[in-house]
Design brief:
3-stranded antiparallel β-sheet; homodimer; 108 residues; 5 helices; DNA-binding; Arc Repressor Mutant, subunit A; alpha+beta
DNA sequence: CTTCTGCCTAGACAGTTATCTAAACAACAG
DNA sequence: CTGTTGTTTAGATAACTGTCTAGGCAGAAG
């Protein structure tokens, strides 16, 4: 079991990811992208799923992208977004390991 | 594989958890608590690990507690905090499932 | 070239947050 | 009771965030 306390730098990097996930709209955006077979979703589809304006959705997508959680590419008129699995997995693992350590009540 | 898009309510509840994790200080606090054999940590130990004032640490602990990530109890002079594993596991699972769905490029 | 649609940037505004100091509360020791 | 120590609450302030409107850029179609 490897659950050392986080260094300040490690915590800063991981916190940036969690912070981006800390908004219901962004969490739903991520979920919509992840749940799409094919792995890619056009912005127009995402915008339609909310009662928010285009710029607001665009802003949230930018936050998710800058946190390394998603990436995008323009193809012709449309812009497509997809998940960055490794980043999600890294965040998931931290919580999983912490939960496990707490459950067994021990670590190193 | 179960990766439906999140409902608005589900997203709100989960986002509250991630939001609490979205601060480097809180992430380190959680990590310090989780990494402690015995599962419980006194506030005084946590305060010593940072260059922040007591009230600031107390504030962050409150945020984590209100997000359901930790819980606490006073025993005599000292207050002890511990992890709520189920809550961490729930957050971890969402990311894990989303990452997996994105990796296979499919869901349901 | 002009126009239309999709997406993003810029700027503004209201609400939230991280931090501090000062003060209060809780438990224990004289 | 009084004083001491550990922890939390209250209030203030500077910084950040989510949302909007207005406007700009990119590509496609006439």
């Amino acid at each position: 079991m490897v659950t050392e306390a986080l260094t300040e730098d490690a915590a800063a990097g991981l916190a940036r990811g969690f912070k981006a996930l800390g908004d219901p709209v962004r969490l739903r955006l991520l979920s919509l992208i992840a749940a799409r077979a094919g792995g890619e979703v056009c912005v127009c589809e995402l915008t339609d799923a909310f009662t928010l304006t285009g710029p607001t959705i665009s802003h949230h997508l930018k936050v998710l992208r800058e946190a390394g959680l998603i990436d995008c590419q323009r193809r012709g008129t449309w812009v497509y977004y997809w998940i960055v699995p490794a980043r999600l997995a890294a965040l998931s693992q931290l919580l999983d390991v912490s939960a496990a350590a707490a459950s067994t009540g021990s670590t190193r």
